[in-house]
Amino acid sequence: MNLFITGIGTNVGKTIVSAILTESLKADYWKPVQSGVLDVKDSDTIKSLISNSKTIIHPEIYLLNEPLSPHFAAKLDGIEINIELIHLPQTNNHLIIEGAGGLLVPLNQTHFVVDIAKKIECQIVLVISNYLGCINHTLLSINYLKANNFKIHSLVFNGDFENEVKEPIIKSLHNTNILHIPFIKPIYKDSIFNISENINHLLSF
Q1: Domain limits of the chain?
Q2: Which residue numbers are catalytic?
Q3: pLDDT tens-digit profile of 44-81?
Q4: Which CATH architecture has domain 2-202?
Q5: Quick check: 106 and 68 in contact, CB under 8 A?
Q6: Measuring CA to CA, which residue among 56, 41, 11, 19 is closest to residue 190?
């Protein structure tokens, strides 16, 4: 099973959720497009947070220097992202694929980040963070995914939420495979492991 981790926006916790799912499933991890390699790569963060010895972290296809939208970062690096060059790595394991930013972050003039999921036929895990406007961004994201025939595997509420945020509006559009990840700070390997153990029984394939 291949799961594509995306979010309702930027900085909603995709990498932390990816680490938890990778650890829970002892899955492989892959981030095909990484912007901002002058800082720590997301794959480095994943490596530092998982405990199991089964996970393989697959190399990125595009490593872009600046922490910007991939299409802009690629332009500054003098290249253009070609989605046809993005192919699934060889593995017999579950694969957690982390996107960059939200669904409609552009890769180039014609493709968005979520188009990677369509090309490699992945189910979507949508990460939701609690901030003013998150309901609107969540509903827009779910509607876009459904209108474009993506299969939503699960919604992940990352952090603390009031019931009025989650219910009934968001759950009325998708009410199965809903995961709740508690707010983690500071983030340690042990905390990732403990949460991954607690949600393992909730992951269905």
Answers
A1: 2-202
A2: 31
A3: 999 999 999 999 999 999 999 999 999 999 999 999 99
A4: 3-Layer(aba) Sandwich (3.40)
A5: no
A6: 19
Neighbours of 95 (CB within 10 A): 22
- The strand pair at 57-58 and 28-30 is best described as parallel
Measuring CA to CA, which residue among 25, 61, 68 is closest to residue 43? 61
Residues 12, 18: Cα–Cα separation, whole Å: 12
pTM for the model: 0.93
Rounded Cα distance, 35 and 16, in Å: 17
Cβ–Cβ contacts within 10 Å for residue 64, how many?
25
Write the Ramachandran bin of 51: left for phi over 0, alpha for psi from -120 to 50, otherwise beta.
alpha
Greater model confidence, 195 or 5 = 5
Helices (H) and strands (E) in the chain, counts: 8, 9
- Residue 95 DSSP SS3: strand
pLDDT of residue 161: 86
Contact (CB, 8 A) for 158 and 17: yes
The pair phi, psi for residue 134, each rounded to 5°, is -65, -30
The widest CA-to-CA distance across the chain, in whole angstroms, is: 47
The H-or-E segment that residue 127 falls in is: strand 123-129
| Nearest CA-CA partner of 5 in 165, 181, 184, 182 | 181
